[in-house]
Amino acid sequence: MAVHRQTSKMALYLVWTLMGFSLSAPPITSGPGPYDLENYDDSNTWNLNTYGETYDYDDLDEETEVGTLAPPPAVTQPPAIVPPEDYVEEVTLPPRPTKSIFPSTLDFHGPGLFGPDTGLGMPSCLLCVCISGSVYCDDSDLTQIPPLPKETTHFYARFNKITEVRATDFINLNQLKRIDLSANQISKVNKDAFRSTLQLQDLILADNNIQALPELPATLKHIDARNNQLRSTGMHAEAFMKMKELQFLYLSNNKLDYIPEPLPESLRVLHLQNNNIQSIGQDTFCNTHDINYIRKALEDIRLDGNPVDINLYAHAYVCLPRLPIGTPV
Question: N or C end: fewer C-beta atoms under 10 angstroms in the chain?
Answer without folding.
Answer: N
